[in-house]
Amino acid sequence: MKNSLESILFISLVLLGCVYRVQSNIFTSDFVVSLTNGCDNNCNGHGSCNANLTNCTCDSQYTGSSCEFLKPVLSNLAHFAYYKNIPAISIFGSNFLNNSQIFIGGVSCDSVIAPTSNIITCILPSEFFSQWNGSLTQDVSIQFNAIPYTSPVYTFKIFNTPTITSVLQNGEKIEFIGNSFIPTSFMAPTLGGVVLSCGASTNANIICDIPTDLPKRNSSIIVSTYLNSSIEIYPFIETISPNPIPTDRSKDITISGVGFTSLSGGETLKVIQGSLNILPNVSSISGTQIIFTPSGDIQNDKTITVNVVQTSTQNIYPSNTVDYTYLAPTVIVVTQNYPPNNNIFTITGDNFGNSLSLVQVLVTASQDNNIEMTILNVTQKHIVFQAPTNMRKGELNVYIDQQINVAGKILNLVPFVSSITPLPPTNGGLVTINGQYLYDAIVNFISTEHNQALSCTYNSTSNYPSEAYCTFLADCGNFSINAESQVSNGDENFIFESKYHEPVITSISPNSYKKSVNQTFTISGKNFDTRNLEITIYDQPCNVSGTVTFSEIICEYISDTDPETVENPVSISISVDSIVGSNNLLLNFEKPCPNNCSSNGQCNIADGKCTCNSSHTGDDCSTPVPTPTPTEDLSSASKLTIPIFTLLMSLFFISF
Where does the record place the EGF-like domain (predicted)? Predict the structure, then answer.
């Protein structure tokens, strides 16, 4: 039972709101009383101590065990662009302290710093951005560990509100331009009620595909709460296939793209190829594809455009313009006409078109020598051209509308020899070979004794016709000229048969011979040679008896032929290696005159007849010519005089 002192103390302690502690309720001399007040500094004037004097109940603006701290208040969050680099998030308010922890959307924000009591910052891990709807707010709270105190949950907008400044068609895409864009999944662009398929957005750009099935040519364009407008969609060509295209109509062309048709209908479509309007078959048109048959002519303007026309308004929606090219020409073979028109050539290949004006054929004879051909005719697979006079062999390049054949063909020229003037002398010398395409040819000389190329020069650049001035070897008989044109892909040649000049007989000494008399003749002329040499006089051999030179032969001859059977002059013939030359004007077989003309005249040995002196006559000039007497002369005179006198007298009397 408590004594009175203990009771009084207990009452006092309770009334004073103090806390006491005793070890025993038994009075001893060691009795100790400890007094504790739980409301320090009387709650700092910002609250009230509870009835047990154990803790403070703070005013609404304060916190802490003794209400010594103003409660931190969050007023705003500095929102930012979604696609900005990982930002330090700044929260504004008052009474901020370090040693705090910030939670945004349930995610702890790291590296918390309160540089002042009015701002606190932290860094939010970027991987959480993609989990948030950029258009919505997030819950934000701060735990102040130093107080301790946890703020209420605030709701703040984290990201800037997207702003769309423009929307436009960019080819096969619709492009939204602005700033502070958030992921497209949170913006949900639609065209005519159709949700667009979009790529990843950036801070200032969103690109979406134009739908395969376009709702309307002029459709509404809506982006969440950020845009409500309309846009006109034009057809757009992405590709054409094939490209390059053939120069004929052998393949249809496929145009791929978007916006060629709309579900609302009421449209017609034209393909513009160069200057031509082409109406594709309706069954060959879809929203993303057009199939049409191109023009069979090569167009100067090599572009393709698609025009969509609204039938009700006649408004035209043109597409972009796409360039195309034609397939490069291919050359398979080049053939050359035979003489005399071998300056005409035919190219066989493909993709030549049919326009003379768009075809160019060049032969590159050397680096600085491009020779242009004259085009005569063009079809899809053939080109006929005429070569100029200065034609040369070389690389053949065919240009069709400035498109060159992929690999140039080497054009060889078939040489042709028409004549050799003059025929070469047997001692050799300069000779002109006439023909065509000899300029670049090798002129080979072939005979029984030789087979080698001749040394030739040219005084003109003309190759059609052409003249080669060649130095011939000393030779005789027949020979061949093999004109050969060599190129890397094969040779062309022409063989011309000819002969050396025949022997020419200009004189023979003596110029007559007698029967049964051995006669040595010296025959002069040119083109004489010992090879297979044969000499005949009146079809009888004259045997060589001396040195044979180019211009002289000595031979022995005897004839037993009856002179009366021979007609002068007799023929002299010389054969050199079967090449024969003759003369029948120089040599006579002496024919005897009767009685040697009785020494009264001259004997013509060519025909064996006498030419008598004036005093003799007859076949052998043996008959003297009679001399008339004087009487006979007077009688003749009288006979002549009388008739004349009588005539004169008659005329006299008649006149009177």
Answer: 35-68, 589-622
Lowest-pLDDT choice from 211-215, 232-236, 243-247: 243-247
> Based on the domain organization, do 340 and 371 belong to the same domain?
yes
Q: Is 535 in the same domain as 585?
A: yes
Question: Distance between CA atoms of 589 and 581, rounded to whole angstroms?
Answer: 20
Do 317 and 266 fall within a single domain? Answer: yes
Question: Are the C-beta atoms of residues 450 and 458 closer than 8 Å to each other?
Answer: no
The one-letter code for the residue type at 314 is: Q
Is residue 381, in this structure, part of any structural domain at all? yes
pLDDT tens, residue by residue, 401-446: 887 776 678 999 999 999 999 999 999 999 999 999 999 899 999 9
Q: Which domain holds residue 604?
A: 594-624
Tell me how many degrees the CA angle 432-433-436 measures, rounded to the nearest 5.
135
Number of domains present in the structure of the chain: 8
- Indicate the SS3 state at residue 265: coil
What is d(CA 338, CA 353) in angstroms, rounded to the nearest whole number?
Answer: 26
Q: What is the pLDDT of residue 127?
A: 77
Rounded to whole angstroms, how far apart are CA atoms 53 and 56? 8
Answer yes or no: do 12 and 56 share one domain: yes
Both tokens of residue 223? 């982006």
Same domain (yes/no): 406, 438: no
For the record, the structure tokens of 636 come out as: 């003749």
Contact 55, 49 (CB under 8 A): yes
Reply yes or no on whether the pLDDT at 644 is more than 90.
no
Distance CA 381, CA 398 (A): 12
Q: Are residues 102 and 146 in the same domain?
A: yes
User: Does any domain span residue 269?
Assistant: yes
* Residues found in the chain: 656
Measured CA to CA, the distance from residue 92 to residue 79 in angstroms comes to: 11
